[in-house]
Backbone:
């Protein structure tokens, strides 16, 4: 199975900050990568697919980049509703696998 | 707008079989394929497997010996059975739908774009 490793596991940030989360795949996955946002008690919400394509309805402050094994999720100007846990997920191979998550907390 | 809703017992005894159903509304199950994903408390997400409406399946090797996913197109539902459960199977179980399309730019989206709300299953005697 492809292992997805996110960093950092958690960090604190302030509203208005630019934040970046990284995701590394244990083998090349082309651009078959998605990012999700999950808030407590809720199902994950798809933010980005194909590494950099914004899902319909997702604010443009979210962006993704990368291909192969290294990927990033950037939030350009952190809003209060963005404090959540973020997961990357590969859909290059089966089994589908997720990163362990990155929790973005309020500083 | 397709919506998913999980249902089933919230408590299962060790060594027994966990059974859940996902009801699909707002669209037909007879297209796309359908997945189960779980999340232990305070932990990450684990893909369990998928079923195509025709009945073909693909399971996570880590669970393959214990998992069965089935579909009932007449009821617009698909189901999960996980046998010989232990405390390690305690989790929120989600049903989800992979998008499975090429967008207008030619990018392939097979991420999970629709999720149920999730149902908590506790394994305990």
Residues:
């Amino acid at each position: 199975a492809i292992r997805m490793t996110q960093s950092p596991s958690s960090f604190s940030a302030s509203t208005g900050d630019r934040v970046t989360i990284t995701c590394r795949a244990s083998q090349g996955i082309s651009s078959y990568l998605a990012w999700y946002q999950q808030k407590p008690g809720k199902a994950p919400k798809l933010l980005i697919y194909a590494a950099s394509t914004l899902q319909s309805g997702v604010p443009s402050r979210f962006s993704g980049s990368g291909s192969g094994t290294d990927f990033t999720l950037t939030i350009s100007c952190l809003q209060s509703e963005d404090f959540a846990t973020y997961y990357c997920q590969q859909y290059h191979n089966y089994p589908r696998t997720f990163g362990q998550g990155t929790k973005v907390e309020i500083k | 707008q397709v919506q998913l809703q999980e249902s089933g017992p919230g408590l299962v005894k060790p060594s027994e079989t966990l059974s859940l159903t996902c009801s699909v509304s707002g669209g037909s199950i007879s297209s796309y394929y359908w997945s189960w994903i779980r999340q232990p408390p305070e932990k990450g997400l684990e893909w369990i497997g998928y079923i195509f409406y025709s009945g073909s399946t693909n399971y996570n090797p880590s669970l393959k010996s214990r998992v069965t996913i089935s579909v009932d197109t007449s009821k617009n539902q698909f189901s999960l059975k996980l046998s010989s459960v232990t405390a390690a199977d305690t989790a929120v179980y989600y049903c989800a739908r992979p998008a499975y399309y090429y967008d207008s730019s030619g990018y392939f989206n097979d991420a999970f774009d629709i999720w149920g709300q999730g149902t908590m299953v506790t394994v305990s005697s």
